[in-house]
Amino acid sequence: MVLGNRGRSFTNALFGPLARGLVRAGVSANVVTVAGTVATSATALWLLPPGHLVVGVAVVVVLAFADSIDGLMARERGGGSAFGAYLDSTMDRVSDAAIFTALGLYLLGQDEQRWQGVGFGLAMACVMLGMLVSYARARAEGLGISARAGIAERTDRLVFAGAATLAVGLGAPVLVLVIALGVLAIANIVTVVQRSVVVYRAPAGGGQA
Questions:
Q1: Distance CA 93, CA 97 (A)
Q2: Would you say residue 114 lies in a domain?
Q3: Rounded Cα distance, 192 and 114, in Å
Q4: Which tens digit of pLDDT belongs to each residue from 24-68?
Q5: Domain count, the chain
Q6: Tens of pLDDT, residues 99-115
Q7: Which of 6, 53, 120, 180 could form a disulfide linkage to 104, CB 3.0–4.6 angstroms apart?
Q8: Is 92 a catalytic residue?
Q9: Within 10 Å of residue 166's Cβ, how many Cβ atoms?
């Protein structure tokens, strides 16, 4: 899920009726998860590379809120399945990759050639390092260790990138987005190190850290 705990009451009030309606109609939460990922990825890749940054960010934000529908549907049914949780996490990686790839393609198409290669490279670094952050947590949890520590949670990464993208769309120099991606790349590395330290310090044989 894109939204943290503080946004859940809002999304429950906003999308709860829709989620209950979809459950009554027999729609699978997994179908909604995949549909949301496709919509978010397609929107990012369609609107951001050509430079429709303000509209692109606005639509992605709306879709991010709507991303809570599958979770609401699962709770409406009395709890989600292991496959549902797996699918949701996997689809999050797909949409993240699409968003940062779209930002890289936008920067690659800029007239300021000095930022083209650097911006695209940093965007791709954010894709790879963001997945590494998620893998570090998943691998730790596979060992029975809770490794949620870190300065670059998924929500933080998307909000930070979205704010920088919106600023450029409203007239800030492209350098703002390039710097933001650089900061995110570093933050991802720091987060992986933080989670690695948690695992290193965990009791032998696993357990909660």
A1: 6
A2: yes
A3: 29
A4: 888 888 888 899 999 999 999 999 999 999 999 999 988 877 777
A5: 1
A6: 999 999 999 998 877 88
A7: 120
A8: yes
A9: 17
Question: Quick one: DSSP state of residue 79?
Answer: S
- Residue 67 contacts residue 36 (beta carbons within 8 Å): yes
Is 207 among the domain residues?
no
**17 belongs to a structural domain:** yes
- The residue type of 30 is N
The enclosing domain of 189 has a CATH number of 1.20.120.1760
Q: Which of 67, 88, 92, 96 is labelled catalytic? A: 92
The parent domain of residue 181 ranges over 5-201
- Tokens for 195, please give them: 């989670």
pLDDT for 117-138, tens place per residue? 999 999 999 999 999 999 999 9
* CA–CA distances in Å: residue 93 to residues 34, 116, 176, 179, 208: 12, 24, 24, 23, 25
**What is this structure's pTM?**
0.87
State the Cα torsion 48-159-125-169 to the nearest 10°: 30
